[in-house]
Amino acid sequence: AAGVIQSPRHLIKEKRETATLKCYPIPRHDTVYWYQQGPGQDPQFLISFYEKMQSDKGSIPDRFSAQQFSDYHSELNMSSLELGDSALYFCASSSRTGGTETQYFGPGTRLLVL
Amino acid sequence: TQLLEQSPQFLSIQEGENLTVYCNSSSVFSSLQWYRQEPGEGPVLLVTVVTGGEVKKLKRLTFQFGDARKDSSLHITAAQPGDTGLYLCAGAFDFGNEKLTFGTGTRLTIIP
Questions:
Q1: Fewer CB within 10 Å, N or C, chain B?
Q2: From edge to edge, which strands make up the β-sheet containing A5-7?
Q3: Tell me: the pLDDT tens digits for A34-78?
């Protein structure tokens, strides 16, 4: 079965640079969630989209923005990167119209800011 | 802000023993999911529970959802070394807006 795809899997950036993380949800899933997981911590919700519209916002810095495109893939744009942004970033997808919104996670993007 | 407490944080037991991991909240879950996560990888779904009192089994793993939908447990029977890993419970609190709040996780080690 197709799973959530994230790219790139690894990313190294310098402080103050920008980064774009991509997420391709499971086919026919209409909702995408972004989470950030720091070292030794549990994943923290950043932002979510349903049918290409932002549906909820969590602890996402103003330096970050995201969107969901017509093909349902999503991109997380991160600007003015800081050392503290180094983390694993996960995308999850679900089918809100399918009933119970079980979220399936991608393999993550490991971002390292130097 | 909904808080989700998971216990124990660390558990190390001998192969063949049984164990239970708990997940508790003061708020009612609209749904709760259990995941297992390997280092550097994404959480892998084990089960979703929705109905109060629901019990689901996945081989040697039994998941229970409290009647009031505020707590859940994961019970592993006859633990094996392959069960070693990080187990996370994650709850959604709003119907129709199911962002997940994660517990702190239980790092399980099964000693052969």
A1: N
A2: A5-7, A19-24, A74-78, A64-68
A3: 999 999 899 999 999 999 999 999 989 999 999 999 999 999 999
CB neighbours of A62 closer than 8 A, spacing ≥ 6?
A: none
**Among B44, B46, B98, B107, the residue to mutate for chain A (most A Cβ within 10 A):** B98
Cβ-based neighbour number of residue A36 at 10 Å: 21
Query: How far is the C-alpha of A86 from the C-alpha of A66, rounded, in Å?
Result: 18
Residues B23 and B88: beta-carbon distance below 8 Å = no
Among B95, B58, B104, B100, which Cα is nearest to A104's? B100
State chain B's mean pLDDT as an integer: 93
Q: Contact, B55 vs B68, CB < 8 A?
A: no
Q: Is residue B32 within 8 Å of B87, Cβ to Cβ?
A: no
Given a cut of 70, is residue B2 above it in pLDDT? Answer: no
Strand, helix or coil at A34?
strand
CB B112 within 8 A of CB B13: no
